[in-house]
Amino acid sequence: MPATVTMPALLALFKIDRDLNQLRVGLENVQKDQKRQQNKIAQLTQDLTNQEHAHQKLAADVSGRDLEMKSRQEHIEKMRASLNNTKTNKEYSAILVQISAEKNEVSKIEGGLLEQMQQLENLGKTLEDLRQQIAGEQQVLAKIESEHADKVNNLNSQIAAMEARRDEAARHVPPEALRTYDRVSQKYPGDAMATVEFDENDMDSVSCGSCYMGLNVEHVNALRGRDEIRRCNSCNRILYLPEMLGQAT
After folding, report:
1. Does residue 106 carry a pLDDT above 60?
2. pTM
3. C-alpha distances in angstroms, 179 versus 128, 173, 208?
4. CB-CB contact of 66 with 159 (8 Å)
5. Are residues 96 and 133 in the same domain?
6. How far apart are the first and last CA of the chain?
7. Nearest partner of 235 among 207, 204, 213, 206, judged by Cα
8. Could you list the residue range(s) of the whole structural domain that residue 63 is in?
């Protein structure tokens, strides 16, 4: 088996990655509306959860206040009944004072209870509005998913086929070169390699075709004379000469 050549194999992989990245970007664009709608529903659902917790807490507070008010009212009735058993005016007056104080507390609790019951009613309406909003937005999402289903399925099929081609192409790249290429690809998806731009009549003006920073002419000489990885000093992309792209299969 002939020895694997680094640059043609890398460029073949690079060409596949460019196409693969375009497909993935295309899929992402198609799914943008869907993801935006999903995020909208997720936010509304979170709002609903928060409001439900607030509703539950307020309902518990209302129930507690109601029990307290009833308990105090029962206590007032017992004190009123005890008035018939008093033996002195002083004892009678003392009970009346207690009844008056208890009635004031009941009045305060009742006022707060009415306010809380109004809040509870308003929260109930908010919950119903949120549930209706979520139902409506879910219908919108279903419509978007239906309209984009064919495009998404087609792009996913193309991506799967391209990923299989990439796996095969990657097997022809020497391991160390592949590790270097993959590291650069993580930073520049679909754009890990850059052409060296120059004019044969002006070799003092050599630059990277991606970041446009100047390069030493040694890069051109090295790529023409040796099969090795050369990287841009600025963006760190792997460099190749324009004529090399035609050698990739």
Report:
1. yes
2. 0.62
3. 55, 9, 22
4. no
5. yes
6. 18
7. 213
8. 19-170
Position 180 in a domain:
no
Residues 200, 158, single domain; the answer is: no
Whether pLDDT at 245 is above 90: no
Tokens for 107, please give them. 């009045």
Residue 178, C-beta contacts closer than 8 angstroms, at least 6 positions apart:
13, 170
**Domain membership flag for residue 239:** yes
Distance, CA of 156 to CA of 23 (rounded, Å): 8
Indicate the residue among 170, 204, 223 that finishes a domain: 170
Residue 3 has pLDDT above 60, yes or no: no
Q: Which two tokens stand for residue 116?
A: 């809380």
Q: What is the mean pLDDT of residues 171-181?
A: 94
Is-contact 146 33, C-beta < 8 A? no
| Residue 32 shares a structural domain with residue 115 | yes
Flag whether 35 is in a domain: yes
Q: What is the DSSP letter of 211?
A: T
Question: How many structural domains are present in the chain?
Answer: 2
Residues 183-200 pLDDT 10s: 999 999 999 999 999 988
Token duo for residue 112: 């707060």
Closest C-alpha among 12, 9, 15, 14 to residue 172: 9
CATH code, domain with 44: 1.10.287.1490
The answer to whether residue 71 is domain-embedded is: yes
pLDDT over 80 at 55, yes or no: yes
Strands 238-240 and 202-208: unpaired
